[in-house]
Specification:
Radius of gyration: 16 Å
Number of strands: 0
Distance between the termini: 37 Å
Strand content: under 5%
Number of helices: 7
Shape: elongated
Order of helices and strands: HHHHHHH
Length: about 150
């Protein structure tokens, strides 16, 4: 199951690269949006595949809350900076995607801290991340269709 979410994010990365390479983002703000999206997708792939939060916690004793906070800052800036572009292109998909990923993070923090303990919490986290990755990819598929129309 680990590879499913990574595959969706890598496909998203490729879709964004294709949009950029076909020069479909003819407006500067859309080009910057796509470069930022490419960067964030790379961050997601790196964070999820390398499990940065576990690495930093185990090797350097940095709490997951700090790691997740630092990783979330670029996402907050992204949504603020590109609010108008996002709102004009199926914002529901991107918001639900981030919501699923955020719920997985919250579940991870609660279960790691033993605040919430239940059977199969890791499985639920994986499902939430997979759904988030799938919707992230679908958002950029629809974005590419919308930008082609303009």
């Amino acid at each position: 199951m680990e590879y499913i979410k990574i595959t969706f994010f890598i496909l998203s990365f490729i879709i964004i690269l294709i949009i950029i390479s076909l020069n479909k983002a003819n407006k500067k703000d859309h080009f910057i949006f796509l470069i930022s999206s490419l960067t964030l997708t790379f961050v997601l792939v790196l964070a999820i595949s390398a499990k940065i939060h576990h690495l930093l916690r185990d090797q350097f004793n940095i709490p997951n809350t700090i790691t997740y906070t630092f990783i979330s800052i670029p996402f907050a800036v992204y949504f603020i900076k590109f609010k108008n572009i996002i709102l004009g292109n199926n914002p529901f998909l991107l918001m639900i995607s981030i919501s699923f990923i955020g719920l997985a993070v919250i579940l991870d923090l609660l279960t790691d801290g033993k605040i919430l303990v239940f059977y199969n919490s890791d499985f639920v986290e994986e499902i939430l991340r997979i759904l988030g990755a799938l919707l992230w990819m679908i958002y950029f598929v629809f974005y590419s269709i919308n930008i082609r129309k303009n």
